[in-house]
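Long-time lurker. I teach an intro course on protein structure, and each term I like to show students one example going from raw sequence to a predicted 3D structure in token notation. This year I'd like something fresh instead of my usual example. Would anyone be willing to generate the tokens for the chain below so I can use it in lecture? Attribution to the forum is fine with me.
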Amino acid sequence: MFDEQDTKMMARALDLARRPVEPPYPNPRVGAVIARDGEVLSEGWHAAYDAPHAEYMALEKLGFRAPGATIYVTLEPCCPFPGKRNPACSELIVAAGIARAVIALPHPFDGENRGRAIMEEGGVKVETGLLAEEAEWLVAGLFHYRRTGRPMVAAKWAMTADGLIAPPDRKRGKISSSEGFRFAHLMRHRADAVLVGVGTVLADDPMLDCREAGFSHPVRVVADPRLETPPGSKVAATARERRTVVLCAEDAPQERERALEKLGVEVARLRARGGELAPSDMLAALAERNCLLVLVEGGASVHGRFFDAGLVDEYMIVVAPKLLGGRDSLHPIGGKGRGDLAQCVPLADFRVERLGEDLLLRGRPVFDGRRATRRP
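-- Reply from a regular --
Happy to contribute to a lecture. Here you go:
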């Protein structure tokens, strides 16, 4: 159905969709490539909410004429609906004489998913599903927010085969293989924001960026009720290069806020409950900043708070073939927990994948019978 050339073109469309540093919310990220006989004729991406759609941008460069060409689009082109501000891309594709449309992901919402039908009725051959998983991650946060009113949360960690993430002294080292390490950075690339607790910053001083060529960097978020993030930490010292948000309590020291803001850190004050920040309040603050796909990386106390609140939509756990042991070694999920085995949270859609010598466990938690929302 799809050949190597198709895959290359769609991969380029996915790269274009990620080109805007700020996502075009409340619209989705979309990229488009128009090609004929293996040659790229034009490209486009949706740069901002009030900017032309990706397909429109690509077609405009060609004078809205591309007879016999193929268009590669990361999301099903839009269709007419009441109140729509821009021309319907599905109709523009038909009018341009496009012969074939390759779509990574169908549009999941009723009333907005007639683009395929419009193109097929206009004589365009439509094929879907190419690089669909990567396209899903492009829009997962936005579509989850539209369904639920809050950002999507993916929780990730690496652990030993006996379920531990650090020795008793909390000094962490590399657990996963190079393939597991790359997966961690792939997820950062997919996310709008990566969130850790201040304990992780104090213990590990992480950069929280992406170190793979071609990957984009997420917004770095630190849950830090008392503003203990050191000005000399990597996330603070590089805040003018990589957007950094520190979430703190309303009564956190003002002088610490000023010190961080001088470095370019955004400080957001939230109501604290028992000295801690509630996950629901943190997610609301991130939604205000257009961070709708949040990757929670830990540490254990942060994972515990999100687990106890039932606010994780997908777990991704990298298991390395090594043992640590130790009664006081650190487990990945802190907090109150479920109390007894009868109250365990089941994981739906559970699957196991191999990452080099590691295993990747993935599942969607069912909190108290409430199943997490699927990705598109």
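Some talking points for your students: The CA atoms of residues 279 and 309 lie 7 Å apart. The chain has two domains: 4-132, 150-371.
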